[in-house]
Amino acid sequence: MSGAVEARLDELGLTLPEVAAPLAAYVPAVLTGSYAQTSGQLPLVDGKLPVTGKVGAEVTPEEARRLAEVCALNALAAVKSVVGDLDRITRIVKVTGFVASAPDFTGQPGVINGASELFGEVLGDKGVHSRSAVGVAVLPLDAPVELEVLVELAD
Q: Using one digit for the tens of pLDDT, what is the confidence trace for 16-35?
């Protein structure tokens, strides 16, 4: 454990996971200038999806909200893999959340709130961000939720 951000995770009873292995030809995150951009982060736990299916059908909105929190933790792990120290984060700039949705499900913002609120709990004002919450037909591995994050960093 190192730094204030990881100490805060510990206070919240959260553990930063190992970086999820890419499923195809990409890397989990890239560093460019003062920014780190994650690839899409699925709610993988120990390399597996705990739940699959569409939100509003096989997956409840509450389950999906918790999975969005897992995606956020995986995104922080991906950022750490390229920046070394999460205390370098000056702001979560943008969160893009994708929700595999049943045709009549319209609660995507509530699902992605799981990630947004986690960033706020962990980073305080630095976790306040712009956001999109998008309903989609299907996600990789039949995941219910996927998250991309753009992070601004201190030098």
A: 999 988 889 999 999 999 99
For residue 108, pLDDT over 60 is answered with: yes
Q: Tell how strand 35-38 and strand 145-153 pair up.
A: antiparallel
H or E stretch at 61: helix 61-83
Min mean pLDDT across 1-5, 8-12, 61-65, 110-114 is at 1-5
Any idea what the CATH number is for the domain that residue 67 is in? 3.30.1330.40
CA gyration radius, the chain: 15
Per DSSP (E only), the strands in the chain are: 29-32, 35-38, 89-100, 130-136, 145-153
Token pair, residue 149, equals 């994050």
Q: Domain of 29? A: 3-153
Query: Cα dihedral sign for 118, 123, 124, 125?
Result: negative
